[in-house]
Amino acid sequence: MASPPAVSKAPFPAPPPFWREFTAENITRLESIKKESKGTSSLSQPSWKPSDLRALDLPTELRHLVPPHPPTEATYRIFGQPQSVTTSLPSLSSQGVTQLFPDTPPSSPSKSPVAYLLLLAKSLLLNFNEFTSILSSNPVEAADKLDDIKTLFVNAHYLINMYRPHQARETLILMMEEQIRGAEKEIEECDRVSKTIKDLLEELENEGNRNGAREPNLGIEGASPSVKKENEDRALWAAIHALG
């Protein structure tokens, strides 16, 4: 009978051995194979799905560059610890831990999860004091008290995780507010530049009218070409300095 695969229990385990195959050369080879398959296979599409890549006849060293199948079982293991594929928070009872608060905390402020966290924090302080007393008098009996402290910590950590959706929602709100503030600043800057340009154009128009009034023999065409060119250059440089 085949022996079960060894499970690494190191705090910082080494990466899987196939990480060496993720090289620039292998990635280039995979891209070349995809380009060649576009003309000879029915898989000619702009974006390649993992299932399409698995259908290709790839060498062994390129197989690991294709994303694996998604997990089909309810659980998988990471560093020897079972993990669930679902996003819902598993109950403490399913993990074999005694739950020290109601399943659905009441909505009243005195019975909110925050209130239970405060109670657990006070219980932790009390149990730690009792733990130190047991260690000084009879260390053999300290194991039970240590399990109580562990249960309190797990319950507190569970209550904190219940706030993760709220934390994610508030984080998204802050990000959107920051984007709105950035857009408003850009709009204000565009309005400021637009007003500056309009003022410069009005000033240029007024100055042209004044120059035209000083040269009555120019007729209905207004100022001479040299004066127009000088005014345009002056307005252009003023606009450039204003934008800078």
Notes on the structure:
The chain is mainly alpha-helical. Helix content is 58%, strand content 3%. The protein contains 7 helices and 2 strands. The chain has a two-stranded antiparallel sheet with strand order 1-2. Strand 1 (75-78) and strand 2 (81-84) form a beta hairpin. The protein is flat. It starts with 23 loop residues before the first helix and ends with a helix. Residues 217-221 have low confidence and may be disordered.
Quickly describe the structure.
With 244 residues, this protein is mainly alpha-helical. It contains seven helices and two strands.
Descriptors:
mainly alpha; 2 strands; 3% strand; 244 residues
Name the overall outline: flat
Question: How many strands, which pairing sense, and closed or not: the largest β-sheet?
Answer: 2 strands, antiparallel
Please give the count of helices. 7
SS-derived structural category: mainly alpha
Distance between the termini: 77 Å
**Share of residues in strands:** under 5%
Uncertain stretches of 5 or more adjacent residues: 217-221
Which H/E pattern describes the elements?
HHHEEHHHH
Mean pLDDT: 78
As laid out across the biggest beta sheet, the strand order is: 1-2
* Quaternary form: single chain
What's the alpha carbon Rg, rounded to whole Å? 36 Å
The count of strands amounts to 2
Percentage of residues in helical conformation = 55-70%
